[in-house]
Design the sequence.
């Protein structure tokens, strides 16, 4: 049987070899960011009406699971390129270490860094933090 470390490496290799070159979770996040970047005409002016919020839940003290709402449905956000790993005992998630720093925001920064390899996340905003948020639930 393959150990979890090897399985995590194989996941990353399969993603790189895929047609899109990214995981399904990455595609979902990119699509949501692109939608949020589209301005809408309201009362004669262009407005950006939405933000992208990634919701985190704690699995352990240093591990979090990410979710996103797409079409009014909550979905797990699994992005191996941004550090999502398989662990034993169904404690899969994103590992974050360090004290005095927001672990969810640290993971969100990692996700945005991966997204920036594919699209410009600052379109229509001064900085990506104005468009992409994280919440802990």
Sequence:
């Amino acid at each position: 049987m393959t150990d979890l470390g090897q399985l995590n490496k194989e996941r990353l290799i399969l993603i790189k070899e895929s047609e899109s070159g990214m995981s399904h979770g990455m595609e979902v996040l990119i699509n949501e960011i692109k939608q949020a970047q589209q301005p809408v005409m309201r009362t004669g002016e262009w407005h950006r009406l939405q933000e992208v919020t990634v919701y985190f839940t704690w699995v352990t003290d240093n591990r979090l699971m990410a979710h996103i709402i797409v079409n009014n449905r909550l979905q797990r956000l699994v992005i191996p390129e941004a550090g999502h790993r398989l662990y034993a005992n169904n404690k899969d998630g994103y590992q974050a270490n360090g004290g005095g720093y927001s672990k969810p925001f640290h993971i969100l920064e990692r996700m945005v860094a991966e997204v920036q390899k594919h699209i410009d996340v600052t379109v229509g905003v001064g900085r990506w933090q104005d468009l992409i948020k994280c919440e802990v639930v």
User: Anything to note?
Assistant: The CA atoms of residues 122 and 128 lie 5 Å apart. Residues 4-136 form one domain. The two ends are 35 Å apart (CA to CA).
